[in-house]
Amino acid sequence: MSRLEPPFRAVGRQIQARPVATLLFAVLLVGAAVVGATGLQTVSGTAAFTPADRTYAAYQDDFQRGSLVVLIRGDVTDPATMRAIDRFDRRMSDVREVTDVVTPADEVRARYGYVPGSSARIEAAVGTPESTIITIVPTTDTSQAEETVIYDAAVEAVAWASFPAGVDPVVTGSPAFTAQLTRVIQESTRTLLGLAVGLMVVALLVLFRGVPLRLLPIVAVFVGIVYTLGAMGYLGVPNSTLTSAVFPILVGLGIDYSVQFHQRYTEELESAPPREALPRALAGIGPAVTVAMLAAALGFAATWLTTSESPAFVWFAQASIVGVLLTFATAILVLLPLLTLYARRQGSSGSTKESTANDRPPRADARPETDDGLIASLLGPLAVTTASNPAAVLLVAGLLMTGGLYASEDLDVLADSEEFSPPDLPARLDLDAFRAETGGGSDVRFSVYVSGSDLTHPTTLRWMEEFDAAATGIDEVRDVQTPAEAVRRANGGELPRTEAGVERVLDRVPDEQRVQFYNDGAARIVVVSERDLSTERLLAFGENVQEAVALSRPPPGVEAELTGDAVLSQRLTYGQVTSRDRITGLGLAFVFGLLLVYYRHPVKATAPLVPMLFVVGWQGLFMAGFDVPVSPLGASLGALTVGIGAEYTVVVMERYYEERERGASPVEAADVASRRVGSAITVSGLTTVFGFSALVLSPFPILSDFGYLTVGVILLTLVASVLTLPPTLVVLDEAWGAVHGRWGRDDRVNASAGGD
To answer: Ranges of Basic and acidic residues compositional bias (predicted)?
Structure first.
C-alpha cells in the first residue's frame, strides 16, 4: 500500500461527510482569489525580459525614460501644421507625468515669440524638413501603467490639436509599443482561455461519452484558474506575454487531473455506496495523480531555476507551478463534493452493482480503462510485437533520437523580444516606420553608460575618441556617436583644452541635443550596428564592443559599461535558448528524484523516463520538419515533456508490474497493460492536446510556435509511451531479474510504491 493512500482516504471521508461545507470553503477561496486578482498587473515589452541591473536602471533614468515620440509627416512649415504642433505641445505639457515636450514649435517661438502665419518665416527657423518629431519626456521612475496614461493622453492630444489634411501624426516610441502590447496581452489571455475551454468542451463531449456529468471537470478547472489569478496577484507575479500561455496549459493539465478523479469515483460507485466510494477512489487514484502533478510542477521548476535572471520566464514558471497545484486542489475541493451530492440525489446510497476483476480497473490505475474498442485492440498486439523485439525497437528509437539531437543544432532561433509580439501590431508597424524615417532602420544601437567624475574633462573626451577608433575597427560597427564628437562639432572641429571650455561649448548646444549625451552627471556613447544582424552576430557584436571599452582604458575615476535593452534582453533570451539541454537535464533529475523517493526502487524510477529521453530527441526532428524555430519558451519544453509525459508512462508501468505480480510473463504483462491502460492514456492525452492547442491561435509568434510544439510533443509522448515503454520495461525487468538470479517475492519490483 502506498504511504499516500491513508491521508487521501481520510480526505475522502471528510469530503463525503461534509460536501456542502467543502463547497462553501471553495467559494470563500474564490472570493479571496477575486480580491487578489484585482492587484494583478501586466508587464510587457523589453521590461519583461531585462533583469534588475543597477547600471541599466541608472541608464534608464538618465537616457532612456521611455520617451514617447510623435512622428509628423507632411508640410511641417505650413502655419496650420505648426499651430497644431504648438497646441499639442501646450496640451501635453499639462500632463502630470510629463516633464518636458520638445517640438519644432520651440524653435519657432524662441525666434519670434509666437507662431507666425508665414511659411517663409517658419522655414527660416526650422528649415524645410519633410517630416519632424515631437519628443515627450516622462518623469523619472515612470511605471508602465503611467506610460500608458501618457500614451493615451498623447493620442487624445493629437486628435484635439486638429492637424490639417495631408499631415499624418503618428504616436510611436517604446511607451506606445508597450501600451498597445499590454492591451493585446490582456485580450489574448481572455481569448486563449476561452478557446481552451471551448476546445475542452468538445473534447469531453467526444472522448468521454457515457460518463455522467462529463462537463463538470471544466467547472473545477475554471475555479482553479480563478485561484491562480488571485495567487498571482497576492504573490506579485504579473501577467506578461509568456504568462498568458499558462492558462491553456492549466486547462489541459487540470482537466486531466479532474477527469481521473471523476472517472475513478464513478467506477467505485458501481460496487459501493458514496460513503465508501469516495474514500476508495481518492486512496486508489490520489497518489498516482499527485505524482503526476508534482512531476509537472518540477518540470516548470527546472525552467525557473535555470532562467532566474529573466523576469518573464520566471513569472511563467511561477504561475505554472502555482496553477498546477491549485487546479489539482480544485479537482478535490470542487469536483468531488459536487459528484457526491449528485450521487446522493440519484439515490446511489446503499446500492451496488456487480463488478468483476476483468471489467473493473484495479485501484492502482490512474486512468479510465477500456477493455474493448478499436484503440485497445490495436495497442495489445502492438505491445506484444514491440515487447518481443525490444532490441530492434529501442535501436530505431535511439537512432531517431540521435538524429533529432543533431537536427536541433541547426534550428532557427527566435531571441529578439520585439519579434515575440504580433507582426501586425499597429504600434510595432509605427515604430518600424519611425526608425526608417529617422535613419534607424533595423540597426541596433548599443549604449555605453559612462559614469564617474570629470566627464567633461578634455582627457575624458580624448578617451572617448580613442574608444571611437577602437570600436570603428569592428566589422559590424556602422557608426559611433560620442559626446566628444558633439563637442567638436559645436566648437568648429576642435576640442577645448580645459574643462571650463568644454562646459562653455556645451552651454551653446540645445538642451534636446545635449541630453542625448550628457544628463544628470552621466554620459552616453552610442554604437550603431549594421542592419539585420543574426542573433549570434549581434551577441558577438556586443562582446566586441565591450572588449573595445576595455582596450581603450577609461581614465581614472571614469567607468564605462555596455548596457541597454539590446544588450540585456537578447543576451538573456538567447542564453535561455542555448541552455535548453541544461533545463532538460535538470527536469530529468528532478523527476527521477521524485520517482525514486516515491517508489524507492531504481528500476521504477528509471523506466518511465526512458521514453521521455526519446521524445526529447524526436522533438528536434518535429521542429526541423515543421520549421518551428527555437524560442526561449520552447527551450523549456524538454523539462516540461519529462514532467508531463512521466504521468502516462507511470500509469502503464504500474499496471505492468501489477500483472507481473499476478504471474504474467514480461510480454504478457506488457500486452495487458497496453490494452487496459494504453487506450485510456491515449484518450486522456488527446484531451490534454485540445487544451494546449488553443496556443496555436495566439497572435504572439512565440506562443503560437510553442502551441505547435507542445501539441506535437504531447502526441510524440503518447507514441513513445505505447511503443517504447513496453520493450523498456521488458529489458529492465529481465535485467533486474538477471542481477538477482530469479524473479521472486523478495527481489521483484513491488507493484505499489512504498509497499509493505
So the answer is: 356-370
